[in-house]
Design a protein that fits this description.
single chain, mainly alpha, two-stranded antiparallel sheet, 2 strands, globular
C-alpha cells in the first residue's frame, strides 16, 4: 500500500526542515564571510546586506595562508593515497587468505580510531621527538597515513568480501599472476570502495587539528591551526576572519562530497554483493 499524498508531503517537509536546521550554521558562515564586521556582530541578525569581498581578500593576503592551504591539500591527498595502497593490500590478504583471528584483528585495528586523540598525543609526541620526526614533512605524512589506514582497511575488506572468489580463480587458472589478479581483475570491482575510503579519510585529515598543532612545524601547518591561532585580533574574536577562512576551507570538501556522494552512500553500507562468474 502506498502512503497517502498528504503524509508523503508532510514527511518531505519534515526532512527539509531538519536539513535546513543542520545547514543553518553553514549558511551563517557563508553569509558572514561577505558581511562587514559591524553586521556580523550586530545584536539583530542582518539578512539583507551589501556583500563585500574585503574579508575574503584579507584572508588570502594573510601571510603564509596560501602555503598553509597548499600543505592541507598535500598532506591530505598524499597521506590518504599511501593509506589506500597499504589498506587495499592488507584488505585483500584478510579477505582472501583469512588468517587466524581475522575478525579480532579487524576489531583491534578499528578500535584504534575510537581512542580519544588527547589520550595518545603525548606518547606519539615523545616517540616522534626520539625519532626526530617532529616538525618534519615525512613525519606528518606518515602519521596521517597511519591515521587513515584502519578505517580504509575496514571499508575495503567489506567490499572485497563481496567480490566472488571465482574472479581470482578464473584469472589464476588462465595464467594470470597474483599481482595481475589483484590489480587488473579484483581492483576494478571495488572502485566505489576505493573512492569512498579516499573521500572519508580526506575529510578526517582535512579537518585534523590537534596532531598538526603538536607535531607539525612552520613548514607542515594546515589551515585548522591557522584558524585557531589567528582567531583573536586585538584581544577580541575576529568573526570576519573566522567566517572567511571557514568558507574557503569548507568549499573543497563540499564540492568533493557533491560529486562523490553516491560512493559515500555505498561506502557506508559496505558496497554491494556481486554475483559469481
Amino acid at each position: 500500500m502506498t502512503a497517502h499524498p498528504w503524509r508523503q508531503r508532510l514527511y518531505h517537509l519534515l526532512l527539509w526542515i531538519v536539513a535546513l536546521l543542520f545547514f543553518s550554521p553553514v549558511l551563517w558562515i557563508f553569509m558572514a564571510a561577505f558581511k562587514s564586521g559591524g553586521e556580523i556582530v550586530s545584536p539583530t541578525p542582518v539578512f539583507i546586506f551589501r556583500p563585500t569581498m574585503d574579508n575574503i581578500i584579507r584572508v588570502i593576503q594573510e601571510p603564509n595562508f596560501l602555503d598553509y592551504l597548499k600543505m592541507s591539500f598535500v598532506l591530505s591527498i598524499g597521506s590518504v593515497l599511501i593509506a589506500i595502497v597499504v589498506s587495499f593490500l592488507a584488505a585483500y590478504s584478510f579477505s582472501r587468505y583469512r588468517p587466524t583471528g581475522t575478525n579480532f584483528i579487524m576489531f583491534l585495528l578499528l578500535s584504534t580510531r575510537m581512542v580519544p586523540a588527547s589520550a595518545v598525543v603525548l606518547p606519539i609526541f615523545l616517540m616522534y621527538t626520539v625519532l626526530g620526526w617532529s616538525k618534519t614533512f615525512h613525519g606528518m605524512i606518515l602519521f596521517y597515513a597511519m591515521f587513515s589506514i584502519p578505517f580504509s582497511l575496514w571499508i575495503l575488506k567489506g567490499f572485497l568480501d563481496g567480490v566472488s572468489l571465482r574472479y581470482d580463480e578464473t584469472a589464476l587458472v588462465n595464467g594470470g599472476s597474483r599481482l595481475h589478479t589483484m590489480f587488473r581483475v579484483v581492483l576494478p570491482q571495488v572502485k566505489p570502495g576505493l573512492v569512498a575510503a579516499f573521500i572519508f579519510n580526506i575529510l578526517f585529515v582535512w579537518n585534523e587539528f590537534l596532531f598538526n598543532y603538536i607535531l607539525g612545524g612552520q613548514g607542515t601547518t594546515m589551515i585548522p591551526v591557522l584558524l585557531a591561532t589567528g582567531v583573536k585580533q586585538g584581544g577580541m574574536t575576529d568573526w570576519s576572519f573566522v567566517a572567511s577562512i571557514s568558507l574557503i576551507y569548507m568549499l573543497p570538501p563540499i564540492i568533493a562530497i557533491f560529486f562523490f556522494q553516491k560512493y559515500l552512500l555505498v561506502g557506508m553500507t559496505f558496497g554491494t554483493v556481486r554475483g559469481e562468474v
